[in-house]
Design a protein that fits this description.
With about 475 residues, this protein is of the alpha+beta class. It is built from 13 helices and 17 strands.
């Protein structure tokens, strides 16, 4: 074997349920030390330390602070941008540098303390963790939301993903029943995962029936079927060259190999997607990852499909030609709604869990999704070396549909949702519409009877009439 072949040799996860818990820096340190200990890797040997963006707190020098605590002096340092594909992009880049002989050891870490931050604020306490950035840097997304989407208050994932969900054109009752059937097995996996945030198995009906503790958060989604971000969780992965693994005395059965991975992009704005209900980019990322790995879907023994919302899983199954109730299961952790969805860091957890499973032999698939189903990563991991890594350049970039900011006249519903208040009452309909002359626009539905109608029947394909004040479009039908 080429001594530059990268392998994953240390993985750690941590879930803290006592509130308030530690700050992110302490969580980073804890899981980093655990992963390094498993890898038998002294921190001083680290060539690279990479951290997934944390929503919980902005440090002045996150990698420097962690490296100081660990006793490391990495020459390569990366702090990611926001997005659920960030962990795999960091892992892939580190593996690529190891394979190129540019480094021998890398640590990738992520942590969130959003549950602690919420607990402190509810208690009326100011969050005052160590080493704050001053001035506080801008939020870490790569592109700010489209102004027209912002004007229509369409920027929360719970609304954008719901719009894509309705674009699948499932009947109201059919969608609800199938969402429950899709996610109930996830809860069963989470129930036996010691790191899961929610460890209770649920029936399909319990997940999708609205009521106390399970309100609509963005129709048709109920709270029990969306990612839970307010968690205190951390994970770390240690990657080294096979040559260094030999020198460290790491047994062959403790080494997991990245056989191939790929990255692809849909459009950044939901309204600009070529198709609201499918993703050519997702399919391209998956097929390229398998091609690079020299394997196919039938070869993998375990999968973890990114599950922030049902539509992400459904689109992945459609692109892969996979039965949503495949006997292998679609998650190894329990997924983001149940195991926990720590902002941008979930794929560290799914990869760490997959690595543990693959030490018994076999191949596994781990996917990531970023922003509004914009970014896609697929990675094939294995107990056996082989394949071709590839790199982080997009294997597909979607061509956006033009967005018209303000519009009056006739239009057709392409996708929609109904936003709800915290008390469970509907507040406004949020629509993405196809225009007769081409392009798309946004609109609100404000009449109570129209919001009720939208939740009682499939509205996609409905012709509506728009009025505008130049900033916000309003639909009636």
């Amino acid at each position: 074997m080429d001594p530059r072949t990268p392998c994953l040799v240390g993985a750690a996860q941590l879930t803290v349920r006592d509130q308030p818990g530690p700050e992110p820096l302490s969580l980073w340190e804890t899981v980093a030390r655990q992963a390094l200990a498993e890898a038998r890797l002294p921190a001083a040997r680290l060539d690279s330390v990479q951290i997934v963006y944390t929503d919980s707190w902005q440090y002045d020098d996150p990698i420097g602070r962690l490296a100081e605590r660990l006793g490391a002096a990495p020459r390569h340092r990366t702090y990611s941008r926001v997005g659920g594909t960030a962990p795999q992009q960091l892992i892939g880049a580190a593996a690529g540098r190891i394979a190129a002989g540019q480094m021998e050891a890398a640590l990738v870490v992520g942590a969130e303390a959003l549950a602690t931050r919420r607990a402190l604020r509810r208690a009326g306490e100011c969050v005052a963790w160590s080493h704050p950035a001053d001035p506080k840097p801008p939020y870490g997304w790569e592109r700010e939301p489209d102004p027209a989407a912002l004007a229509h208050e369409l920027f929360l994932p719970v609304h954008t993903y719901a719009i894509m969900e309705t674009a699948l054109r499932l009947g109201i009752a059919e969608e609800r029943a199938s969402r429950g059937e899709l996610f109930a097995p996830f809860t069963e996996v989470a129930a036996v995962n010691p790191h899961a945030w929610h460890r209770t198995a649920h029936t399909p009906s319990e997940l999708v029936t609205p009521g106390p503790g399970n309100r609509f958060v963005g129709w048709p989604y109920t709270r029990k079927t969306v990612a839970v971000m307010e968690v205190d969780q951390a994970a770390a992965l240690a990657l080294v060259s096979s040559g260094l693994a030999d020198r460290l005395g790491i047994p062959l059965d403790r080494r997991i190999y990245l056989r191939g991975w790929a990255y692809a992009e849909d459009t950044w704005e939901v309204a600009a997607r070529p198709s609201l209900g499918s993703s050519a980019a997702l399919g391209a990322a998956a097929s390229t990852a398998f091609e690079r790995a020299g394997l196919g879907l039938d070869d993998v023994a375990a999968m973890d499909l990114y599950s922030c919302f049902a539509v992400a899983v459904r689109m992945a199954c459609d692109a892969l030609g996979l039965d949503p109730l495949d006997r292998r299961g679609l998650t190894v952790t329990g997924g983001l709604p149940y195991a926990g969805g720590p902002a941008s860091g979930y794929v560290l957890h799914s990869t760490a869990t997959m690595a543990g499973l693959l030490r018994d032999g076999g191949h596994g698939l781990v996917s990531g999704v970023g922003m509004h189903l914009t970014k896609h990563t697929y990675a094939v991991w294995s107990s056996e070396p082989g394949g071709t890594l590839g790199d982080g350049r997009p294997v597909h970039t979607a061509e956006p549909v033009p967005i018209v900011a303000s519009c009056a006249g006739r239009a057709t519903v392409a996708g929609y949702t109904v936003a709800h208040e915290r008390d469970g009452s509907p507040s406004k309909g949020l629509l993405v519409l196809d225009l007769p002359e081409g392009g798309r626009t946004h609109a609100w539905a404000l009449r109570p009877e129209l919001m009720a109608d939208a939740m009682e029947r499939q509205l996609v394909g409905e012709r509506v009439t728009l009025t505008t004040d130049g900033k916000v479009n309003v639909a009636v039908w």
